[in-house]
Amino acid sequence: LEISLHWNRSKQVILVAILLFISTTQAAAQEGDSLGPTYLVQPGDTLSSIALRFDISVAELISENGINNPDALNVGDPLRLPGIDWIDGTLILDDVQLGDSYLGLRRQYWLDQASFVRLNRITSPNQLYYGFSALLASERGENTNSARSVLAAGQSLLELAIASGENPWSLVSQNQLNGTWEALSGDILFTPRSDQTGPSNLPSTIENVSIENPGFVTGKTAVIRVQSNANLELSGKLIDHELNFFEESDGVQVTLQGISLSSGEGNYTLTLTGQDENAFFSTQQVIRVDGGNYQRETLTVDESLLDPELSAREQVQLLEIANHASPEKLWTGFWGAPHPYIDVINSEFGIARSYNQGSYFGYHFGVDFGGGTGVEIWAPAPGTVIFAEPVELRGNLTILDHGWGIVSMYAHQSEILVSVGDNVQSGQLIGRVGNTGRSSGAHLHWEIWANGVAVEPLDWINLVFP
Ligand SMILES: [Zn+2]
After folding, report:
1. Backbone angles phi, psi at 121, to 5 degrees
2. Under a CB-based contact definition with an 8 Å cutoff, are residues 451 and 241 in contact?
3. How far is the CA of 412 from the centre of ligand 1 (A)?
4. Engineering a disulfide at 132: which of 30, 89, 96, 148 sits with its beta carbon 3.0 to 4.6 angstroms away?
5. How far does residue 348's CA lie from ligand 1's centre (Å)?
């Protein structure tokens, strides 16, 4: 009896202690809530841009923060935001990086869905494209004292917890899930411990993903470089094109993908898929494609010259030939000129042409260099000849394969001076300018395709691709 009495007393003591603890923490939380959030002034901010962002008035901002000189706003200054009581902490802006996702960002910054949506005024997770300036509630990386694990196919969160020696409920809480059932295979989850850093929403085998100049722009060659610490078999998809990754150096893989002129600017999905000896992952990222700055032309020509079917047929024929992804890269550094008169451009790449009051529409997939019949055409980079014969539109056509999915084309030649299978060197004479095929005057029409998509050829002279 004495023992049981003792038990009851200690239970009472514990209960009282718990109640006291709950009431004090609640009081503390309420005090904290009443403070509201603080926003740190970012480069380029003005009082009116901040007021607009948070839907409050400039006058309220000034009076709440006791601002004397509205023009003397310093980057990093903390500002109180009057009237905002649904979120706490320090608000900052951060660009969405490759590998970030709606769920991943929320997990990293501990933001619930309602606050995240309200802060960023988004209506769909698809609006969080790469480079989007997102409002977040603390410093990035607060949650990076954790490793990333991929939930393997058929593996449950419970099994992952057991395998990593964790409590499944702490994994649920750390990953802002409602229950263990919400984690699906392929999900990248935070697991405690470890000091690994890197893209948040990619598995820890990936150390870095970078998008290089010129980025995602219609008619340009996008370069995606992935650095990993494991033997990773990478694949992916960008705007309906299967990506081909090639090993640049130990642990570094690169893909070169043309962004089609006809894609138009807008949001698209980039999918990265990887497989190593242990795990499979697949992650999607919304990316923003900007429109290139190309001209428009309205032309009136003889109807007999307009044959969309022929043009489409030749495009399919060329795609079959050009869809080469030879694993050996044959060039290094800048490409040379294909022709002696590269300053004499008759027609630029990417021009959108509307013919005969819109009866036909097309893009100029190459750049036209002037110069008369017989002018020399040179290989601008080492390559292998994969096509050398006449076609209907482009006339006498040579196609060079430079490896890694990059091919170049030389159209309307008067003479082809190479044969299929030849290996050519940079600067080598490969043909002569002419007026064959559907052409109105001698010129060199030069195209470069990156993984099946025509891109701005001059970029390859002016920029260094991997
Ligand atoms: Zn042309």
Report:
1. 45, 45
2. yes
3. 9
4. 96
5. 8
Instruction: Give residue 135 CA to ligand 1 midpoint distance, Å.
Output: 46
Calculate how far, in angstroms, residue 340's C-alpha sits from the geometric centre of ligand 1.
17
Residues 336-372 have pLDDT tens digits of 999 999 999 999 999 998 888 877 788 999 999 998 9
pTM for the model stands at 0.75
CA of 187 to the centre of ligand 1 (A): 47
Residue ranges near ligand 1 (ion) with Cβ within 5 Å: 366, 368, 445
CA 363–ligand 1 middle distance (angstroms): 10
Residues belonging to the chain: 466
* One-letter amino acid of 58: V
Cα torsion 96, 99, 103, 108: sign: negative
* Burial status of residue 11 (CB atoms within 10 A of its CB: 0-12, 13-18, 19 or more): exposed
pLDDT tens digit string along 292-351? Answer: 989 988 877 777 777 888 888 999 999 999 887 899 999 999 999 999 999 999 999 999
Q: Residue 193: phi, psi to the nearest 5?
A: 70, -175
